[in-house]
Amino acid sequence: MSEKRCAATRKGYNWKGSEAILPSILHEQLFLEAMEVTTERTLLMVKPDGVRRSLLGLIIARIEQKGLVISNMRMFRMDDAFARTFYAEHDGRDYFPALLSFMTSGPVVALQVESPNAIVLVRTAIGATRPEDRLPGTIRADFSTQLTENVVHASASPTDAERELALVFGDSHTTLGAVHE
Ligand code: ADP
Ligand code: MG
Fold first, then answer.
1. Cα–Cα distance between 110 and 3 in angstroms, integer?
2. Terminal CA-CA length for the chain
3. For FRET with 70, which of 8, 27, 56, 150 sits at 20 to 30 Å CA-CA?
4. 129 CA to centre of ligand 1 in angstroms
5. Whose CA is nearest to atom 22 of ligand 1?
6. pLDDT value of position 86
7. What residues does CATH 3.30.70.141 cover in the chain?
């Protein structure tokens, strides 16, 4: 097999036609691969302060305006055990008791958000953890000056997103998602 044909086969393209047009086919294949974006699912959660302050509509509007797709939603109140599991990585930190008490202080609203690169896009939209690092236009910057009571949570990585969505939505987190089709 020629070098060009080998290269095409390695890319999973089984071209049986003329070698003359193989370079352009390879080019198109590379272009399509470069354009390929992975649809991700992430968890955005309006924390008890956001629900208490009636910020739900404003937060959801920002997500929808940006073109992110909300494919599942749930309002519930965390009990202590759920909050401990959800924030397990913070167990042992001096602020952990205050975080648990805040997160169990009222209902939260969990949104499953889908889009290409949803995880980083939603993290960017909510803004930084530390108040002084938050850029104007982010949800946390615009609605909170506090470190703990910061209105929203969003998953920080693909592993966190899957774990958190499964915790909040159980099996249904994989079955919804066709709402906008
Ligand atoms: P993020 O929510 O931006 O991912 P972290 O995972 O570091 O931030 O922390 C989880 C939550 O714990 C924060 O959103 C905030 O409510 C609270 N928190 C984090 N660090 C502190 C701290 N040093 N003091 C008090 N509360 C904190
Ligand atoms: Mg975090």
1. 52
2. 43
3. 150
4. 6
5. 95
6. 98
7. 39-175
Nearest residue to 46 via CA among 13, 77, 92, 5: 77
Residue 145's nearest CA partner among 136, 154, 153 is 136
Closest CA relative to residue 125, chosen from 83, 167, 67: 67
Q: Which residues surround ligand 2, an ion (CB under 5 A)?
A: 156
pLDDT above 90 coverage of the chain, percent? 73
CA distance 151 to 102: 11
pLDDT digits (tens, 9 = 90+) for 99-122: 999 999 999 999 999 999 999 999
Q: What are phi and psi of 128, to 5 degrees?
A: -75, 165
Q: Which residue is catalytic, options 27, 153, 173, 180? A: 153
Residue 65, SS3 per DSSP: helix
Query: Are the beta carbons of 165 and 73 closer than 8 angstroms?
Result: no
Would you state the pLDDT for residue 171? 79
Residue nearest to atom 19 of ligand 1 (CA): 148
What confidence tens digit (pLDDT) does each residue in 29-45 have? 655 555 567 799 999 99
Quote the ligand 2 centre to 175 CA distance (angstroms).
Answer: 25
